[in-house]
Amino acid sequence: MRGTRAIFKEYAVPCPCFAFMRRFAWIALAACAALPLTAAAEAPPAPLTLERLYALPRLIGTAPSGFTWSPDARHLAFLWNDEGTNFRDVWILDAGAERPRRITALPRPLGGSATDAVVARREADVAAERDEGVETVAWHPDGKQLIVTLRGKVHRLAATAEAATTLDAGIVAVRHAVSPDGRRIAFVTDGAVFLQAWAASRTGDAVAPTRLLARTSPTTTPTRLEWSPDGKHIAIVESDRGAVRMRAIPDYLPDEARMREVPRAFPGEPAERRRVGIIDVDTTLVRWLALGGNAEDLVLTLAWSPDARELLIDGSDLYVKHRRLLIASASDGRVETWLEERDPRNVSADWWAAWAPDGRGIYYTSDRDEDYHVYLRARRGGAAKRITRGDWAVDDVQLVPAARALFISGNLGKPEERHLFRVPLAGGAPQRLTRSAGSHFVTVSPDGRLAAGEFSSDTVPPDLFVTELAGSPSDPGAERRITRSPLAAFVEHRWAPTRYITFRSPVDGATLHGRLTVPPDFDASRGRYPAIIGSIYSNTVRNRWGGRVAHPTWGLDHYLAQQGFVLLNIDVAGSSGHGKAFRQRILLDYGGIDIADIEAGARWLASTGFVDERRLGIWGSSYGGLMTVMAMATRPGLFRAGVAGAPATNVRHALTGEMRVMGRPQDHADAYDRASAYTQAEQLEGALMIIHGMRDDVVLYRDSVALTHKLMLLGKDVELVTLPDAGHGWDNEGLYQTIHAFQRLVGHFERHLGSGPR
């Protein structure tokens, strides 16, 4: 509706936050008064309901994904569903075209029918929801075929197909890699690597597979395959979980309860082991590389040199304190350490590395200085040259030799936004290429003339946009919207506006960033509003649809705002894009400095004059669940109510990856005890709801049971909402579960905080 768009437009005008919020009600009224007289006859905005927000087809549609350019840069393939449901087909956009064409129309489950019993219909609906169709799409090197994966098989498809309803027989594989000439495919199945010939003119069955690497044990599997440019070798990463402890997760849904065992190491226990090898394609012999370090070290990047003689390996210890860039010889397997970086305070590993086009140097990202930036160092050593610098962070790098440039994604300009920049290979000032305020996640064409990918913002749900990059250096071309995913009914609703704010940490003076959402009919003169901090997590303050997109909380946020709640997201310590020092504040301090950041946000809300400090709530999931419980326990009385989804309340039971922040419990027992909500339960105040899926193997359901039991013994106000068929992504595993859980969450806050201003 035009009224909604007018409010968004007015809201986007920069102004000081307090003054803005106090004026918002008058701005909204003025925007409505400015509408043509015919607008008065229009139907009022349709109210949002959780049932409609979390139903198929989605109001915001289905986000396109999997963008991949053809070798000649003339076509873009991607995955999409233009009906707003989950099953994705393959689409192609021809360069210069305004609309894509669909090249598959594969059969899909239809869900339940009206004649089915309610439970049977719902179970059929869930089966249909969980079938997301084509999983990946990539171009065959000949540029005439596509390689797609669907339900555990790899298929080839002619790029000229017209809404194909069938695919070829396919190859059963859990991962695969096609040779540079397109004549062979290496793939992993049953824990071993196979090689199969692919005749260039055929799409049917080819010759029998040739075993390249036999499985050495039932616990070992290849996890990565990389062909050398000359097609003579394949680099492989092998994972071995043989030493990882198996843990039982009970399943109560079958006729008889049973235990499901999963490999699951706790911090300080033996973890997954890895090794890197080079397969000689002709002889099928594997040369395992002596990398040094520890068998549990991470392998982040494998990259062949342009001449295929050397393999670059970017790796780190499990705690990401010691990074090593290694170079291995393809001919004899000799390994040299090319670069080392040590930082005992490091907590993240957002590293990237690639060979320069001429093979004489290596580009890599590092946060050795103020934040993640790009460096270039000669292959034979010497000092590294800075390619980018400044008070911003590089998120992603694409090296495009044809354009003689690096295309970099980063937050230069505004911390909450992500834009594409061009930087010459030799370095220089970044040139911003994307214009629209929001977040751009794009892939650049091989000729460097176009960028295509997902764009979204606080007011625009995700869609495919194409940006012209070949205009004059001072004025790149405009962005074109290619897909239109939201349903027509999207504009019939009033969506809550957002604004970005900053405030200071009283602990160390760090600048904290927040994303503020207010009700669509916000009016500070009506009284003070209840406020909820959340969904809390790191990296939530983003100008993209829904802010943090790992969970489908976009609809919940808009619903809570409609019901009269003010919402605040905070980039707590450890979040990226605000400098190296800001990330490292979290070291050894889960449940400490991050909770201080949350408290600072609560105090800021109370200072605005339009939030009722007696009606503050908090909620989050996983790590956000840990922070929810810790905030209610270590800041008793600050929050009247909280909801913790799948809360990591016992950090000793976290994933081993959390040791990059917390170290080993054997070395930092006190820090683990301080960070575990179970040990802080006596001080907890306020009404706590815990939501947890029983099939969760990331944060164990039994930890929530243990905490609930302890809180009951202590006489605390606690409620456990159990989702029998949900894993760790409890709010994204069956819409009926999502609705059920969010209804409980909303009801909890309405009971304890009340809704709307008072």
Describe this protein's structure:
The chain is of the alpha+beta class and 758 residues long. Among the domains are: 2-44, no CATH class; 61-172, Single Sheet (N-terminal domain of TfIIb); 395-485; 488-753, Alpha/Beta hydrolase fold, catalytic domain (Rossmann fold, 3-Layer(aba) Sandwich), CATH 3.40.50.1820. The chain is built from 12 helices and 42 strands. The strands form 10 sheets. The protein has an 8-stranded mixed beta sheet, sandwiched between helices. The protein has a 4-stranded antiparallel beta sheet with strand order 1-2-3-4, with no helix packed on it. Strand 15 (246-251) and strand 16 form a beta hairpin. Helix 1 (2-11) packs antiparallel against helix 2 and helix 7 (593-607) crosses helix 8. The longest helix is centred in the last third of the chain and has 19 residues, at 735-753.
Write the layout of secondary structure elements.
Layout: H1 2-11, H2 17-33, H3 50-53, E1 65-69, E2 75-80, E3 89-94, E4 101-102, H4 118-130, E5 136-139, E6 145-150, E7 153-158, E8 171-172, E9 175-178, E10 184-189, E11 192-197, E12 210-213, E13 220-227, E14 233-240, E15 246-251, E16 258-263, E17 273-280, E18 286-288, E19 298-304, E20 310-316, E21 322-329, E22 335-342, E23 353-355, E24 361-366, E25 373-378, E26 385-386, E27 394-400, E28 405-410, E29 419-424, E30 431-432, E31 439-444, E32 450-456, E33 463-468, E34 479-481, E35 498-504, E36 511-517, E37 529-536, H5 554-562, E38 566-570, H6 580-584, H7 593-607, E39 611-621, H8 623-634, E40 641-645, H9 659-662, H10 669-675, E41 687-693, H11 701-713, E42 718-723, H12 735-753
Parallel strand pairs: 37-38, 37-39, 39-40, 40-41, 41-42
Antiparallel strand pairs: 1-2, 2-3, 3-4, 5-6, 6-7, 7-8, 9-10, 10-11, 11-12, 13-14, 14-17, 15-16, 17-18, 19-20, 20-21, 21-22, 23-24, 24-25, 25-26, 27-28, 28-29, 29-30, 31-32, 32-33, 33-34, 35-36, 36-38
